[in-house]
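Lecture notes, continued. The same structure-token format from the folding unit now serves as the input rather than the output. Read the line below as a description of shape only.
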């Protein structure tokens, strides 16, 4: 079992190491050997942001929320009951909640709170939605990433899937992006760390 706390990337300030880790993201997706994940990941990272950018104000449709949830579970742990709850949300409720969140992106706790009003949606799934809307401020809330970060950040402690813990997590990644310099943002930091962990053998 991979000891995430001992992986070196988080403690490194070497830009080349961070870039190499980020460049290994597709390799990490392939390493999970889930036949549905590559297509979902391509859609989530490349197609959905373009669709969202064309909407003003931004929002997520019911079908998109379901597929975001599937992407999250394919990359991590499949939780069928949660997916059923997400599917049972009325389409109008999904659009209203995410439209409200898009108007609150400058107040991250309120944006997160708007999305988690939906059935089956906790802070991790909400962060996947918000990361598409504003990747600089809302990195996806991931266990493999947290395992590398939390042991080295004062005040984080053991992972808790709560809004309060997510803010600590997001702040740590935002600060690291600032330290890495121009061209980096929090979601890039998340993806680099996730790929670094998966390519080192980490699984959830």
């Amino acid at each position: 079992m991979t000891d995430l706390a001992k992986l070196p990337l988080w403690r490194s300030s070497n830009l080349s190491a961070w870039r190499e880790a980020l460049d290994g993201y597709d390799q990490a997706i392939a390493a999970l050997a889930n036949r549905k994940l590559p297509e979902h990941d391509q859609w989530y990272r490349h197609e959905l942001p373009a669709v969202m950018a064309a909407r003003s104000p931004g929002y997520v449709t019911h079908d998109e929320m379901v597929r975001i949830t599937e992407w999250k579970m394919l990359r991590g742990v499949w939780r069928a009951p949660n997916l059923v709850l997400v599917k049972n949300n009325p389409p109008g409720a999904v659009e209203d909640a995410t439209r409200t969140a898009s108007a609150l992106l400058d107040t991250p706790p309120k944006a997160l709170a708007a999305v988690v009003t939906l059935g089956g949606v906790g802070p991790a799934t909400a962060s996947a939605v918000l990361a598409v809307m504003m990747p600089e401020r809302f990195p996806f809330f991931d266990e493999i990433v947290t395992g590398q970060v939390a042991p080295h950040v004062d005040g984080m402690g053991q992972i808790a899937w709560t809004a309060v813990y997510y803010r600590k997590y997001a702040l740590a990644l935002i600060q690291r992006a600032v330290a890495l310099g121009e061209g980096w943002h929090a979601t890039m930091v998340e993806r680099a760390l996730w790929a670094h962990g998966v390519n080192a053998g980490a699984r959830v």
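Point for the exam: Residues 2 and 202 are 5 Å apart (CA to CA).
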